[in-house]
Amino acid sequence: MWEWIVEPWRYGFMRQALAATLIVGATCSLLGVYVVLRRMAFVGDAIAHTTLPGLAIAYLNRWNLLAGALVAALATALAIGWLSRGRRLREDAAIGVAFSGMFALGVALTSRMKSQRDFAHLLFGNVLAVTTADLIGLAAAGVLTCGALWLFNKEWMLTTIDPLHAQTIGLSPEWMRQLLLVLLALAVVSGIQAVGVVLTTSLMVTPAASAALITRRLPWMFAWSATFAGVGGVVGLYASYYLSISAGASIVLACTLLFGLASLAARWRQRNRLTAASAGCGP
Amino acid sequence: MTAAKPCDPFLPYGGRGHRDPRPDQPALAVERLRTRYAGAAGWTLVDVSLRIAAGARVALVGPNGAGKSTLLKTIAGLIPVAAGRVRIYGNSIGACHHRLTYLPQRSELDWQFPCTVADLVMTGRYVHMGWLRWPRRADRERVAEALRRLEIAPLADRRIGDLSGGQQQRALLARALAQEACLFLLDEPLNGLDESTRDLLDDVLSAHTRAGGCVLAATHDLGRLAESFDSAVFLRDGQIENQFALRSEGEFRYPPRHFHGRVES
Amino acid sequence: MIRREAWDRGNIGRATAGRPARTHRLRSLVARTTEAVALTAPNGTSQRLRAAVAAAVLPLLLIAASAGCVETKQLGQVPLNSPASADATATPQTDRDTQPSIRPSTALGTQSDTPPGPQSGTRSGADPHSATAHGGSAPPSANSAVATAANGMTTATTGNGSGRTGERHANNAPGSESRGSGSGDRAGGSGEPSSDSGSGSGSGSDAGKRNIAGRGSRVGTAGDGGSRIPVVATFSILGEWVERVAGERARVVTLVGPGGDAHTYEPTPQAAALVADARLVFEIGLGFEGWLDKVYQASGSRAMRHAVTRAVRPRFVGPPGPDAELDPHVWQSPKLADRMVEEVVDALAEADPSHAVEYRRRGDAYREELRALDVEVRGLLAAVSRDRRVLVTTHDTFGYFAAEYGFEVLSVLESFSSEGGEPSAGELAAVIERIKARRVPAVFAENILDPRTTEQVAKEAGVAVVGTLYTDALGPPHSAGATYLGMMRHNARAIAEALR
């Protein structure tokens, strides 16, 4: 049994993959708490997809791919924020515009690309091919994101609950939203490294949504979200190792499984509470 | 317990944008205010002029769409002033955020957010903290006091999503108290509340005005107008149609007396 | 990417046409754009997105077309032999290589009018290659017989490959001998076929085309075979073979150019247009060009499809079984390349019987080079001892190479066909263990694939990554892998060097 547990970690690439998964998982899942609470899941998805033109341009010009993705993601984030400022255009419409436009650009650029399989790798990501340099970048993005969450949690909380009050006391909900979008771009780009464009959203949303099911306090929600992502990452890597499933997919599947467990637990607890309440009322 | 602390417009704090109130100015002075929503053709408010002295409780009444909410939001700084002037204790909008609080209609808040009542009330203290500061003991004490004042102390650890409408309104008012604001702008504060909550809110607000604070509340509830407010402003189609005093007892007169707080000159 | 210079040159002259021609063009253009847009969208794209793109493109196109400013250059491929363009050919204003006047214009001319619905002949044309693939041997191509008939060609005989081969061999042996020595010299000398510019055969053949293009008008008026058959080859290596055989008799367009990955190619509208206008389409088959059926059908092409692996006994990827995938990487064996070039010769000769002798002559010369290549590769690899003959590559491309030269293949990506191609941790670990167990000295990166995974494996196993092998595509011009011969030589040298 011990052997079974230890065996995968004899490999350097597995240890690096674990480190990358944990870092990215923490980054995405912590930020995911606000993504879920602010009903922005679609934004994360949009940003993930709009990294496509950035990746394509960087690839065609032989620039750093992550930098390309980051620039594209930031551009999208700011564009969404700018388009939907002052409620002139609803956020979902702004996202729709930015998302489809950027994605179409990405598709157009990809079709000018010679080797598309090469590119598919980027879209799907490969946590098993993460290098030490990548890890440093991921850690930097993670520290930045988590640090900002810690420092500005108070402000985000207020602008989420009551943006009007925030504005009357001089705290601009717009700016806080922009800041969140920028961090979202950062987290998405780091998520692309681990699980790719397609699955990043789930890494961001699933753990936080699971946490929302089982806790009703913000600090606990952060803790649970990170825990779910971490456990999902580890379980996913084991599954990838022993069941020969592609790593990104198995990580996301593990997170989804945890979500299922969390919803079962939530339901069970609710039933318990109901029976307890009726028992309490009875006599 | 019932004796509210005197409201102090000179409340010292380390936040941004503090400016001393002008002693010779009323709590709120609105002069020929015009606003409109972005993209809208007509004016939402047309030449609204209003003066409210410290210690006054003023009701803002009028049919739906008359501009009550707009007026409150403009004073609160949520809608830009297109023309005219708004002065709060002699200063312009936004010059001194902590002195004013705006209680939106309850539907404007995200009550599903996973935080407790105490957390929500604590957001009232944020303006005194500013960036990168965390609640201290004094803040927590203020919050506890506000919760007690509104008789929701036992609910402090309850999730805000689990509150009833009346409890939500109490929590919001507790937040305003915790903020130690002077000018309260309330949007339909008494809507759909039970009798006991209304009485409590009335009580708290009158204590607030007695301590030198000032209340401007949009309301539909004409039945309680006389007992809850000193005067009323009737708004129709963005214009002030009428303003009248509801109570002649006390020192309240219209035009209202100027604020003569404890000016340390 | 598509190499389309040659066709563009051919098309410019034809843009001038009368009104009826324009409406005719317009109709086919519209039909084709819709198809092409639907075709280009990657598989992941939603239906809505596709529809939106199509809706956006069409009006623009119509406006442009009605303004009379649709130069064929833009979206290209106006039907090659609309009546109007045939007129244009006759007029002396076209000094370039214009419409092939001798081509049986009925076949391709009607093609643009008929909606690309179910065409029994051509549709079955898609099948035989899969039939070939699964049967393993070479069934007679009933489809191509049908296709030929539809094309109104006189040469309706499509015998099966093997029978013909011997015959042709016997026929053309002397000619090929005489040509063969010369090309053998070239191959032996610099490793690059000598041409005027001396920059590899890609540019060499381009130069050849340009020459022909310049002469086109003269020859065209003379009414003899100055026209060039429009031929499409699916990817760069096959394209080169066809070019070498066809010489100046055909305009060869390659859909997936150098450095491109034909496994995961997403067809563009131009690709569809090219296929539509082609008379011959050469493909590897064996499931290699999974996208070709779609293009072929959507473009409404009546071109004859030739799977050059008809005469090749296919290998399987992994253990053979009902679900085993066929290994399409046949070009990795020069011997099989020889067989396939023969197939190309036959196909061209059949399509253009009047120049059959020429094709045979050139084909035999090239096949001689290929046989020399086999000898050379064998010689280079002789330096590698038996127990070190293990190839670790990114995907399973060296099956035929390994079978030919006695290598064992360990590939990092177990399945070449899945687009997601991301290996699992278990698979990576297994490969690493096998590399360690076999004491493989080096692993190889490929020119068409992302090397990150390979690098990771190499680092973990403590072996070197050897520079890029040209596997499923030619390299860019002027590189060592710019030609098939150069590419194979480069690979053999790199492998010999690394494993010695």
SSE diagram, text form:
The complex is a heterotrimer of chains A (283), B (265) and C (500).
Chain A: H1 2-6, H2 12-37, H3 41-61, H4 65-83, H5 91-111, H6 116-124, H7 132-161, H8 163-168, H9 173-214, H10 218-242, H11 247-281
Chain B: E1 28-35, E2 45-52, E3 57-61, H1 68-76, E4 83-88, E5 100-103, H2 117-122, H3 126-129, H4 137-149, H5 165-179, E6 183-187, H6 195-210, E7 214-218, H7 225-228, E8 231-236, E9 239-245
Parallel strand pairs in B: 3-7, 3-8, 5-6, 6-7
Antiparallel strand pairs in B: 1-2, 1-4, 8-9
Helix pairs in contact in B: 4-5
Chain C: H1 5-12, H2 19-40, H3 47-66, H4 72-75, H5 83-90, H6 105-111, H7 120-135, H8 142-150, H9 161-189, H10 200-222, E1 229-235, H11 236-246, E2 250-256, H12 269-277, E3 280-283, H13 292-299, E4 304-307, E5 315-317, E6 325-327, H14 334-351, H15 356-381, E7 390-393, H16 399-405, E8 408-411, H17 425-438, E9 442-446, H18 452-461, E10 464-469, H19 484-499
Parallel strand pairs in C: 1-2, 1-3, 3-4, 7-8, 9-10
Antiparallel strand pairs in C: 5-6
Helix pairs in contact in C: 2-3, 2-12, 2-13, 7-8, 9-15, 11-14, 11-15, 12-13, 14-15, 15-19, 17-18
Report helical residue fraction of chain B. 25-40%
Q: What form of chain A results from the Cα inertia axes?
A: globular
Helical fraction of chain A: over 70%
- Indicate the structural class of chain A: mainly alpha
Mean pLDDT across all residues of chain A, rounded? Answer: 86
Based on the structure, what is the oligomeric state of the protein chains? heterotrimer
Which pair of protein chains has the largest interface, and what are the residue counts? Answer: A-C, 39 and 42 residues
